[in-house]
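re: that chain from earlier
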Amino acid sequence: MTKDEKFKLKRRNQYRLLFRKLFGGENGSLKLLLLISYFLGAMWVWSKQKTLIVFAESMELISPIFQTLLTHSIHAYLVVGGILLTGFAVYPFGRKAAQDQLQSIGLVNHAGMVPILQRKYSDRTNPHISIWEFLNQGIPLDIWESKRTAIEAALDITIIRMKYGKRKSHILLYTVSAQNDLPELRRWKDSYLSSDNFVLTLGEGFVGPVTVNLASIPHILLGGATGSGKSVLLKLLLMQALRKGAEVSIADFKGGVDFPPVWHKKCRMCFDEQELLAFLTKLVEELHRRKKLFASAGLPNIDQYNTETGVNLHRLIFACDEVAEMLDRTGLSKEQKELVNQIESRLATVARLGRAFGIHLILSTQRPDANLISGQIRNNLNCRICGRADNILSQLILDNTDAANQIPKDAKGRFMLHDGTVFQGYLFDEKNI
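^ sequence. v structure.
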């Protein structure tokens, strides 16, 4: 494309943008109201012009400039009001600065055009979030995503998420001030325990606590490299589950060394495959028993069953700190592989049917091997949480590489949810379980 063609394309684009800002967009109703008010005001000033002229001539001590404005009131109104109205309609604060910054990091299309800031406004659901709306100039969302950290540095913001607007010609950046970055350490307080039924608090996000409701999202897959804080987050979730009256079982093939004695008193611990298979078999039997109970009572889930019958069935939670280690068949004998197959089959049953009956899985892994977690299990672990990770592990947990790209390599306790929410997990004292 020649320079002349680029210039003509840029000029036509500016005309289209001006037309769109004046007569379209999500602020169309407000703009129309202001335009009507402007013309009504002009009519009022016109009707009072003679009165204003007489008033100006009768006031001898009035400033000459003010006297001139009163004498030519309609002209002054039209000029000043028109400038203000046009400025409101077509020029949001900071547009030029934003364009310069985006151009400096190379966020341009093939014609060299830069995304144009159309407006900034507060999110209706959370006033702490500011939404930047850009005309994206044909730059796809994945290009914006690839330049996320550069955009944050250029605009001095922290981006919570990006998405297309009502049309794909617009990009929405949900942001908070860069000064509101997450703390490197946030200690747990008992006041953080949610009072809502089986809502577990994960940590602190950019706009407040981040939670997961096991009543609606029953199973959790947690990933992260060694030292990312994955085990601490797992224990945080299990601690809250215990506080809410759940019965917790933990598979740990390291002999329980990662779980201090207090966990052994509060939870059932499984240390080998045979013991684990026996436990999971009883867990599946309990699932089917509850299924019959709920069916005979005509009730769909554990919460309604407990409320209607007055029976207090506890939620049952099975956790494993390294599920890939548990399901790895490498180097196993035929009998050992069959044992792992049976364990996997029972996990798949709980993952598929456990939600309504109050039976939950919280599985974590640090090994980036998709073959170790079968599709039947993984596809039913709807809550995905990933800490510091490489591209492969991030892809395994979140189905994208966002955790690898957005979580600093030296971060501890920093995680990303499946919906893109970033949070700092709470650190708690295990002695206070």
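Residues 35 and 85 are 8 Å apart (CA to CA).
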